[in-house]
Design a protein that fits this description.
The structure holds 2 protein chains of 2 kinds.
Chain A lengths: L6 E7 L3 E8 L2 E9 L4 H16 L8 E5 L11 E2 L2 H12 L5 E5 L4 E6 L5 E7 L7 H11 L3 H9 L12 H13 L4 H23 L5 E4 L6 H11 L12 H18 L1
Parallel strand pairs in A: 1-4, 4-5, 6-9
Antiparallel strand pairs in A: 1-2, 2-3, 6-7, 7-8
Helix pairs in contact in A: 2-8, 3-5, 3-6, 4-6, 4-7, 6-7
Chain B lengths: L16 E4 L11 E7 L3 E8 L2 E9 L4 H13 L11 E5 L11 E2 L2 H13 L5 E5 L4 E6 L5 E7 L7 H11 L6 H5 L14 H13 L4 H23 L5 E4 L6 H11 L19 H17 L1
Parallel strand pairs in B: 2-5, 5-6, 7-10
Antiparallel strand pairs in B: 1-4, 2-3, 3-4, 7-8, 8-9
Helix pairs in contact in B: 2-8, 5-6, 6-7
The chains are: A alpha/beta, B alpha/beta.
Chain lengths: ~270, ~300
């Protein structure tokens, strides 16, 4: 008796970049990401094609594609969709089984998701439509500080003390950064102030949800050591960060696709 | 650090000014009081003699509050022969009110705006929308200018003067013209979908690339901001008479849209370029009125 191999894909249509994860029998065999750009649908199509090529898997063998992300309606011919919170919970627990609170900080949105041991979402909070609690905040502040985005985190770790700034708005945060520069505050201190401000905002959002350990941080911003350090200080605990945290949404979608394809087969 | 390139016009930059209302000769025996409103974007000072407005200034807030307060009161005193020692009582208000070095007391800008609006438009004022550089406030008051309730949108640039400055710069339209330009559309476009100014800016750039005119983009943004201000007003409850204070009271694009959404007109803007009071100084004016009351109580 031959059982055909189960191949599924998850596509995360993020505001800044599209992420794709391919699973074979529930294991990751390929991942890929690309800037969303002006035509996210085309970008996603290409990202998917490239990911399949990398894994040496023909498109026709895919059993199921599940899409997620804020631009989910622009996903190329997927079989189903899953909410971003659902995908976060699914993948968070898959990567770190002890995860019960998942914080996802992306380019333009931040979310907190509470889940059970099976990766089912119990409750969630979202910060959308405000750049202050998302990656866009760090990007804007890095520009004001004239520091490369990747350097912000390591720079902030060199700070010797905290110097508080306005946490609640990118527009006002920019002027605060400029006044810190005028006061001749050093760049590491300002970088830390920026991460502290953002961590404050994310932390107050998650506190509305209630925190159950373990806390897992995912999304592109989770790769920033400066933000992780500030969030740990603000929350008073150590958040766990999985490898490739920016792919968590796509992975969650791919896991859901895997389940849905399996269900159909049986 | 942001460096202004040579020859680059700063479209957001609004005009600072000073005004002396009367040629009255003040005497040491007069009750001379002042209100200093250190806002996030503008610092204003009003000098009152025996409860009547004598002079005022509208200046830009610098990088620290004490210096901005000194600048504002300094401008208001210029050419009057007044010195700081002549003041019987000074009240500081606004975002930087605790950092007004010459003030005898700090009072919240909510109380000051209500008092100021009551002085500018009279006792029939019941609802005030104050749109400042950094926040939007919807204030209800009684016939004496006492606050009965209020709501504010704190530290989010959406709908504030700062947000308008960002758009003036983006679209390269002088801030003073922005309201009028936003009305130059044949048909009102859909409002921009992003509330956050940072995101709205990105959205606006996308619309420009799509071929929208500057006027249309500005109309879409102004409309979204007017909707946001009206939501705050509706939550606090609107009762006539309705007035608008703060820098955005001069933005005809915002004002026209608010009036259309609410279905009521604000009380007319005083002719502040002539002999009238500028609604931008309502906070500082209220502070100067409160200063007089506090001085009399302390005697």
């Amino acid at each position: 008796m031959t059982v055909s191999t189960l191949i599924t894909a998850g596509i995360d249509m993020g505001t800044q970049s599209v992420k794709v994860v391919i699973l074979k029998e529930g294991k990751i065999i390929s991942r890929n990401q690309a800037f969303s750009g002006f035509n996210p649908k085309e970008t996603a199509e290409k990202a998917l094609t490239d990911a399949l090529e990398n894994a040496n898997v023909p498109r026709t063998t895919i059993n199921h594609i599940t899409a997620t992300g804020s631009g989910v309606e622009m996903a190329p011919n997927s079989d189903s969709t899953i909410s971003m919170m659902g995908a976060d919970a699914k993948a968070g627990v898959y990567l770190i089984p002890s995860a019960r609170t998942i914080i996802d900080v992306g380019a333009e949105e931040a979310r907190g998701v509470k889940c059970d041991s099976k990766g089912r979402m119990l409750n969630f909070v979202v910060n959308e439509r405000c750049a202050a609690g998302a990656g866009a905040f760090i990007e804007a502040m890095a520009r004001a500080l004239e520091v490369e985005l990747d350097e912000m985190g390591p720079l902030s770790l060199k700070a010797e003390r905290a110097s508080p700034i306005n946490a609640s708005c990118v527009i006002f945060g920019e002027s605060d950064v400029v006044s810190l520069i005028h006061r001749q505050e050093s760049k590491p201190e300002i970088a830390r102030a920026i991460f502290d401000a953002m961590a404050d905002r994310v932390s107050s959002m998650v506190h509305r949800l209630g925190i159950s350990p373990d806390v897992v941080l995912i999304g592109g911003v989770a790769k920033d050591v400066g933000f992780v350090a500030s969030l740990n200080r603000t929350l008073g605990l150590e958040v766990l960060v999985p490898e490739n945290p920016e792919y968590t949404g796509a992975l969650g979608a791919a896991l859901v696709a895997n389940k849905r394809a399996g269900d159909t087969k049986n | 650090m942001k460096v202004v390139q040579e020859g680059k016009k700063e479209y957001w930059r609004w005009q600072e000014y000073q005004k002396i209302l009367s040629s009255k000769n003040w005497e040491k025996s007069d009750i001379i009081t002042a209100g200093v409103d250190v806002g996030s974007v503008g610092s204003k000072a009003v000098v009152m003699i025996n409860g009547e407005v004598y002079s005022w200034s509208v200046t830009r807030t610098g990088s620290n509050s004490p210096d901005s307060a000194k600048k504002a009161i300094g401008w208001a005193m210029e050419g009057t022969g007044l010195e700081l020692d002549d003041f019987k009582y000074i009240v500081g208000t606004g975002y930087g009110r605790v950092n007004v070095p010459m003030a005898n007391k700090a009072v919240t800008e909510i109380a000051c705006h209500a008092k100021g609006a009551n002085h500018i438009w009279g006792p029939t004022v019941r609802t005030i929308l104050d749109v400042g550089g950094q926040d939007i406030k919807a204030i209800r008051c009684d016939q004496t200018g006492r606050v009965t309730s209020f709501l504010m949108n704190d530290k989010c640039a959406a709908g504030t003067g700062r947000g308008m400055e960002v758009f003036a710069d983006l679209l390269q339209i002088p801030i003073e013209d922005i309201g009028e330009v936003s009305l130059r559309v044949d048909e009102e476009p859909e409002p921009v979908s992003c509330t956050c100014v940072a995101f709205a800016k990105t959205e606006a750039m996308g619309l420009l690339r799509k071929g929208w005119s500057k006027e249309k983009v500005l109309a879409a943004y102004t409309r979204a901001m007017a909707i946001r201000m009206c939501a705050l007003l509706k939550r606090v409850g609107i009762e006539k008479d309705f007035v608008i204070t703060g820098g955005q009271s001069k933005n005809i694009g915002v004002v026209t849209r608010i009036e259309k959404i609410l279905g009521i007109k604000r009380l007319p803007m005083p002719n502040w370029r002539g002999g009238g009071l500028d609604p931008m100084i309502a906070g500082a004016l209220g502070a100067a009125i409160i200063a007089k009351a506090l001085h009399e109580r302390s005697k």
